[in-house]
Amino acid sequence: MQLADDITSEDLKVFLEEAEEQLQLLDDEVIRLEKETTEEGLAGIFRAAHTLKGSSAMLGYTAMTEVAHAMESLLDKLRNQEVSVTSQVVDALLHSLDVLRVLTDELIDEQGVEVDFASLVAELEACMGIEATESTDDGASASISITDEILSDITTSLASGETVYQINAAVTGDEMFASIRLFQLTTELSDTARLIAANPTLDDIQAEANGKSFTAIVGSDKSIDDLTQLALAVQDIGDVSITPFDADSAKATQVAAPVAAAQVVPTAGGSADAPKKAAATTVRIDVDRLDNLMNLIGELVIDRTRLQQIGRSLAAKYKADELIESLGKTSSHVVKVVNDLQEDFMKVRMLPVGTVFSSFPRMMRDLSKSLDKPIDLQIEGGDTEIDRTVIEKIRDPLVHMLRNALDHGLESKEDRVAAGKPEEGVIKLSAFHEQNHIVLTVEDDGAGIHPEKIKASFVKKGLITEETASRLTDAEAVELIWMAGASTKEQATEVSGRGVGMDIVKSNIEAINGFVEVESTVGKGSIFTARLPLTLATVQSILVETDGTLCAVPLAYVLEAVKLKPSEISTISGREVFRLRDDVIPLISLSEATGLTDGKRDMEEELHVVVARVGDRLAGFAVDELNEPQEIVVKSLGEYVGGARGVSGASILGDGRVVLIMDIPTLISGVGMRSRKATIADEQQDDLESELKEIEELENELKEIQELRELEAARTSEQVEDAA
Questions:
Q1: Residue 154: phi, psi to the nearest 5?
Q2: Which residues are catalytic?
Q3: Alpha carbons 482 and 504: distance in angstroms, whole number
Q4: DSSP label of 407
Q5: Is 244 exposed, middle or buried (0-12, 13-18, 19+ CB in 10 A)?
Q6: What's the CA gap between 374 and 406, in Å, rounded?
Q7: Rounded to two decimals, what is the model's pTM?
Q8: Longest dimension (CA), the chain
Q9: Which end of the chain, N or C, is surrounded by fewer C-beta atoms within 10 Å?
Q10: What is the CA radius of gyration of the chain?
Q11: Cis (ω within 30 of 0) for the bond into 258?
């Protein structure tokens, strides 16, 4: 891997960022090209390839330049309707993109890679219906018409003590790459000498209106040998001849044969008459700087809250004081400014979820071909914005859900036709905002999830007993897919079958305080729905106290807060429950659920209860005291704390107190109960108790399964460590 000598690390960073954008654009447009060919789409692909070729040439990265150029040649024929869009053409373009990504990784890893350029070029040329052609260039020198402006520049160069040279050269390699070589030669001369005139000009080269010959007039303080070595250092440049330029004879004659008037190539300093480039409207900022700013704003939010508390306390103590009044006004202004700053900065951190979605069409196309399952992938809501920290966490779950939808969900072509469905299956990926959440859905029109197959698979693998399976409802059986080891495939493949995909989905989503659920109808398809917080930086919470510990319950999960009398609490099968309108809800001490205390309380006192909901699961968490809702800044507990049960993070209040942020999805998954309508009639109480007892037994069995999973995971980890 060779780059230009003057390339800095910052130049390389900018190139990599731009290359990633162009490659993603190319990926999107090429996939779209297969379904719908438009002039606008082809023009966009061509521009992206051309930009990539030019930027890599400026970098001196010849390998990438050659691939981009070969790709550009095919795209040019597509634009001119000399070649039609076929599956073969799309495959060749995607292959080129794969090679370009490998070359990009080479720059990042700083390790050489092996790329079969010859076979790639042959593949692209086969799509163009051509074979490698010999150059028809006769090797004659290009020409430069000597104008008064050129003579003036020559005089200026001589006056500064430079020697003026005429340089003649030619491309000795494949004509396909002539533009690339001449572009590299021109930029090298521009960086080293005063390039007075050249033919072809940079504009001609970029428009590929050039042959294989090159002539230039330069002013330089370097020797002929130095300039010769510089030219010959460019790949495929040969037949280099450099002679001192005769300025006197040039007034009456021209360099070489007069062909066309030359365009003056601007020097690095530019020209006074050159049009000014429009000022950039966007800037690139390192994400680490954004994170640091977010931390500082978080501290401001904490101080804002503290300032409000101090202001209220002083106002209550010194009601009619001018200084207190002035402090109140200043405090109100600071609060407004901090709120506006926080809101605007959160918008800066927001990214469209389409940045994640954009990689899926290519992935699903390749998977569709390998499984021989044609699909129509529909993507909606790509412009829905979400915090970048959340974006980083959702890609893997979405990958597993999409692959599962194609491999497990959609039937084979033959089965779909037999079922009266179109041969092409539909998978729909969508995103939209819902209150303080972003909702992601993956929907397919496949066979759906068969509860009986799930039960049979779990029984066969020894994960549940036949008795337990018989008591499971269809909805409860479908929920088993979230467990590790859940798979109905007899044999694992490269795509799925190991029973870990859905477990990863659930774990990753719950790790960012989200939750996921599934709805399925046999024969019609399935819908996987994930609800995620818009940001992980701050969270609206209700503050509660339990056994002297201050906790925060995210408002996104809070259904309501109630106060219960001892008479309103019942015990069924050893578990405390209460009725909230038509629902029977388990009552759990928050301190007990988190392991802070044993949860014992005074049975004669009224209880404050926070009713929380995650999906269709409900639970009431008993606390000692309810405080006002508050926006808090999320702080990581750090690895040294370990895995605190039911705690997702912490925060610091304005008065310096530490508050634990509750992981409600985890807590409810352990103790929650699906919403079930209560029957108020006393004669039906026995049926209710029996039902709840069965639920309790089932949940106990599921807990045992979970414990076995954890033990097996620990055992596997120990075996891996021993093997290492």
A1: -65, -45
A2: 50, 72, 404
A3: 8
A4: I
A5: exposed
A6: 9
A7: 0.60
A8: 119
A9: C
A10: 35
A11: no
